[in-house]
Amino acid sequence: MAKILLTGGAGYIGSHTYLALVEAGFEVVIFDNFSNAKPDVPSRLQDISGDAVHVIQGDVLNRDELAAVFDAHQIDGVVHFAAKKAVGESVEKPLEYIHTNVGGLLNLLSAMDGAGVRRIVFSSSATVYGDTDVQPIPEDHPRTYTSPYAYTKIAGEQILEQLNDDWAVGILRYFNPVGAHQSAMIGEDPSDIPNNLVPYIAKVATGDLEQLAVFGDDYDTPDGTGVRDYIHVEDLANGHVLSIKSLLETGSSHTVNLGTGEGSSVLDVVRAYGEACDQDLNYKIAPRRDGDVAVLTARPTKAKEELGFEATRSLADMCRSSWAWVSGQRRNSK
Ligand code: WQD
Questions:
Q1: Where are the alpha helices (DSSP H) in 50-141?
Q2: DSSP state for residue 149 in the 8-state scheme
Q3: CA 326 remoteness from chain centre
Q4: Residue 214 Cα: closest atom of ligand 1
Q5: Is position 18 annotated as part of the catalytic site?
Q6: 228 CA distance to ligand 1 centroid (A)?
Q7: Is the whole-model pTM more than 0.70?
Q8: How far apart are CA 66 and CA 307, in angstroms?
Q9: Per-residue confidence (pLDDT) for residue 334, from 0 to 100
């Protein structure tokens, strides 16, 4: 049974990928510094999977901690999630983002190379495409960064592209991951006020936040609000399983979008979430947010052709799963 190392595996996408990998028959080791993950995530994963969860607390910025993982475990492949991911924060702290996201990747690649492990799935983002009118976006669209965060994702991809043929690399460009695991026992769990739409709506639905500000209704879109390609986090996790499987089986690299190809507006999401939680959600129209683009949707065909990947869950599924998670959390916290 192949053994996979998940850096950042206690995080939102990492924890869902953990469950998908275990279900697919992989052995998995989580390596996480818990800077953006609650300490009880591993025990929740154990409750869901029924198996002991192997967790090593460590930091990708610590070369010794990374080397120790490869000394202790016969790792066959790595899925690298451990990175900072808030666009706005990256503008305030560019050096921290470059140090963690690029420096951390370089440390990981050195540790892997030293251990003879040369299969890596890299968590990238649609943000590498910048602001473009080309929609849906194909993978061969030029890359341009609009934030230090986007720069670190492009830099990571370009570093991986320099590696020789001993390496097989899966670059996965996420569009907008949302939703929660079907068990409602793990999900997106932002500690502060969310920047992203769905976790913000979720907190309005639970009463933790008063009102959603819809950032602009004057875009060139059907209802004037921003359109994005939302993808269920469980579909996204499945994409990672297919990616690492392909690397291990073929030794060939790939770069694919992970999205549905379908666009949903902000008001579409507000409506879908309101139906999921049976509430009229409180929102107001506010000015546009700096840096936002009107439309961002994936051309999903390459992931289908190269990995057999297809997103199957609907926006309604995404909102229902998010509501089940946050309302369950609230119930447990009372
Ligand atoms: C979605 C839509 C907003 C919040 C970001 C990052 C991207 C990736 C995913 C890391 C937009 C609108 C939002 C709110 C709103 N992260 N909105 N009110 O900006 O598409 O992508 O997260 O890889 O890199 O850029 O996601 O959820 O912030 O916004 O009206 O309170 O919702 O204007 O149209 P985004 P988002």
A1: 63-72, 87-92, 94-98, 104-115
A2: H
A3: 18
A4: 30
A5: no
A6: 8
A7: yes
A8: 29
A9: 62
Q: Nearest 5°: phi and psi at 224?
A: 85, -10
Using CA positions, which residue lies closest to atom 7 of ligand 1? 127
214 in ligand 1 pocket by Cβ < 6 Å?
yes
Q: Is the dihedral of CA 222, 223, 225, 228 positive or negative?
A: negative
Phi-psi map region of 168: left, alpha, beta (phi>0 left; psi -120 to 50 alpha): beta
Q: Which of 197, 229, 273, 284 to mutate to test the pocket of ligand 1 (most atoms within 8 A of CB)?
A: 197
Alpha carbon nearest to ligand 1 atom 14, residue: 197
Is the pLDDT reported for residue 280 higher than 80? Answer: yes
Order of strands, sheet of 254-258, starting from the edge strand that comes earlier in the sequence:
54-57, 27-32, 3-7, 77-80, 119-125, 168-174, 254-258
Residue 234's alpha-carbon distances to 166, 188, 271, 273, in angstroms, are: 31, 12, 22, 18
Environment class of residue 196 by beta-carbon count within 10 Å: exposed (0-12), middle (13-18) or buried (19+)? middle
Protein residue closest via CA to atom 4 of ligand 1 = 197
Do residues 218 and 266 lie in contact, with contact meaning Cβ atoms separated by under 8 Å?
A: no
More confident residue, 191 or 286: 286
**Which residue's entry shows tokens 């008001």?**
267
Choose, from 97, 149, 151, 174, the residue flagged as catalytic.
Answer: 149
pLDDT at 330 over 80: no
Burial of 25 (0-12, 13-18, 19+ CB in 10 A): exposed
